[in-house]
Amino acid sequence: METELGSASAAPGEVARGWFDVADLPTGTPERLPVVIVNGAAEGPTLWLTGGVHGDEATGVAAVLDAADAFGSMRSDLAGTVVAVPVVSPAGLRRNARHTYYDDADPNRHFPDADAESARPPKLQERIDARLYRAIVGEGEGEGVAADALIDCHTAGVDSEPFAIRDRVLYGDRRTEAEATALADDLAAIVDAFGFPTLTEYPAAEYVEENLQRSAAGAVLNEAGIPAFTAELGAHSVVDDRIAAAAVAGTVSVAVALGLLDATDVPSSVSDASDRLDPAPVDHPVRRYRGPTAETAGLVRHHVSAGEPFVAGDTLATVVSATGERRDEVTVDHDGYVIARTEGLAVYEGDPIASLAVRDDGDLVVPRDAAGD
Ligand SMILES: [Zn+2]
């Protein structure tokens, strides 16, 4: 079957590149997203890869481009289709910045959520995100492109460890608890195949408060019920080729898990890159945690670096005055490890000093009511 999205149209066994128009610009040109379709020689599931929803997240874009190339070279062995959109936010890419200049919006917090409908008409970012979302879930914007799974590639802060984020699956109006459990199992299978250290997303209330159910992966998972996760590929702004190669290896193993490829058809030059990442330094399940917070203003001097473990009660940082006097200690009340230290030397009261992976005993399937809406 021919697979088509925007101007890209690929017959079985072919690779096609093109553009998917998502809006008109005042300057008379369309806002268009780059598309690469790798249509396998045989039919099978469809794996979507997206990157660059934040315009400064260079390694995510590189990983999607490199993965599309890798699948292209394996297309005669591929049973199914890979649809890659390497730059989801062209307006962010033009600025090399996380946000677009449309209302200075975060493009990754405006995907559809039927419970978040506003009385006001949707603005441009929300319309662009909705057009892409409809294409991903197969609501009539392309032929044969409906996703069976999505990997959305990002990067995090300065000096961040790479990781994958597994969102909790919400149940309630959209699906029953049993359906949510089945979806969470399908999600676990692809996240495990990706092979990066995995963090479960924030607890439900914080997840919805931060509008993360309206991220690309959050909406595809929790609104459409399609397995989807976010890959955080190290730090922003500069391509990290080691992590990009590991992400390509992980993406190819997701394709194997979904049945698009036989593991024996994957060249070792691709799969070996998965060994280049360090495993998580703790062996218990972890979730994302932003903190602990400084309670005194000053300059923060960290004692624990990205990738290093800690236990509850450890001091992660000291806050000092600009004349070097010790003002406060910042301790942690969880076990876990440091994903990244927060950017910036100056801290104010209430500022989180790090992004952590902390022990998680929470459920992976939770009622949406627990999110407080
Ligand atoms: Zn991002």
Secondary-structure topology with pairs:
Layout: E1 3-5, E2 8-10, E3 15-24, E4 30-39, E5 42-51, H1 58-73, E6 79-85, H2 90-95, H3 124-137, E7 142-143, E8 149-156, E9 163-166, E10 169-171, H4 177-194, E11 198-200, H5 204-209, H6 216-222, E12 228-235, H7 241-258, H8 268-271, E13 286-290, E14 298-302, E15 309-310, E16 315-320, E17 326-331, E18 336-341, E19 346-347, E20 354-359, E21 365-367
Helix pairs in contact: 1-7, 4-7
Bound molecules: zinc ion.
The site of zinc ion (ZN) has 4 residues, from loops.
CATH topology of the largest domain: Aminopeptidase
Helix content: 10-25%
Overall average pLDDT = 95
Largest sheet: 12 strands, mixed
Number of domains: 2
Please tally the β strands and state the result: 21
Query: Ends: how far apart?
Result: 43 Å
Shape descriptor: globular
List the uncertain runs.
none
* Major sheet: arrangement of strands: 3-4-6-5-8-12-9-11-13-20-18-15
Query: How many DSSP helices?
Result: 8
Radius of gyration: 21 Å
Q: Which series of helices and strands comes N to C? A: EEEEEHEHHEEEEHEHHEHHEEEEEEEEE
What would your notes on this structure say?
- This protein is α/β, with parallel strands linked by helices.
- It has 2 domains: 3-276, Aminopeptidase (3-Layer(aba) Sandwich), CATH 3.40.630; 286-359, OB fold (Dihydrolipoamide Acetyltransferase, E2P).
- It has 8 helices and 21 strands.
- It has helices at 58-73, 90-95, 124-137, 177-194, 204-209, 216-222, 241-258, 268-271, and strands at residues 3-5, 8-10, 15-24, 30-39, 42-51, 79-85, 142-143, 149-156, 163-166, 169-171, 198-200, 228-235, 286-290, 298-302, 309-310, 315-320, 326-331, 336-341, 346-347, 354-359, 365-367.
- It has a 12-stranded mixed β-sheet with strand order 3-4-6-5-8-12-9-11-13-20-18-15, with helices on both faces. Strands 17-16-14-19 form a 4-stranded antiparallel β-sheet, with no helix packed on it.
- The site of zinc ion (ZN) has 4 residues, from loops.
